[in-house]
Amino acid sequence: MVVHVIGAACWLGLTLGLVALALTAITTDSSAAVEAAVRSMKVFADWLVLPLALVTLLSGLVLSLGTHWGLARHRWVYTKFWLTLATTVASLFALRPGVDESAATVAAGNPVTDTADLIAGPLVSLSAYLFMTVLSVLKPWGLTRRGRKQQRGQKQRASAHKRVDAGDVRQTA
User: Fold this and answer.
1) N or C end: fewer C-beta atoms under 10 angstroms in the chain?
2) What is the largest CA-CA distance in the chain?
3) Could you tell me if 22 and 45 are in contact, meaning their C-beta atoms sit under 8 angstroms apart?
4) How far apart are CA 6 and CA 56, in angstroms?
């Protein structure tokens, strides 16, 4: 659990840093500040995003399969898994290429013209991570259909054992 919480917190913090850098690149008039912000985003996106995404995804999967929460037993766990998978894929195929394209534009001495691409990925990611954090704390929505079936099966197995009523027990000596 510690690995998962640290990985998720780092991923959230990294994304918040990417938002701050993108806002700096979009709002400043200084070409040096734009270049520094975009280059920093590239370093973060190239070296940190994917490892933190994979640590969070894999540790969450291990946690869900190794604890009573289960992967498909509770809706909040199931939702977090799919959102984590989606944000990992989006980071790989949308966020990183967008940042790399902006960095190449800046390196060529051209201004970043498509600022929406620069900020959209980090903002969407940040929103998803904050939502997943809320899910982890509140644990809403109850059991999935599979979780309800498992719970019914456990109750049936428990009630299949003959109950002994205290009035039926005779003392023999």
Assistant:
1) C
2) 99
3) no
4) 8
Return d(Cα 168, Cα 109) in angstroms, integer: 91
Query: Dihedral (C-alpha) 58, 61, 66, 70: value to the nearest 10 degrees?
Result: 170
pTM for the full predicted model: 0.84
Closest C-alpha to 10, from 42, 55, 40: 55
Class of residue 2 by CB neighbours under 10 A (exposed 0-12, middle 13-18, buried 19+): exposed
For the chain, 173 residues long, give each residue's pLDDT as a single digit of tens: 999 999 999 999 999 999 999 999 999 999 999 999 999 999 999 999 999 999 999 999 999 999 998 999 999 999 999 999 999 999 999 999 999 999 999 999 998 888 888 999 999 999 999 999 999 999 999 998 888 888 888 877 777 665 555 555 566 66
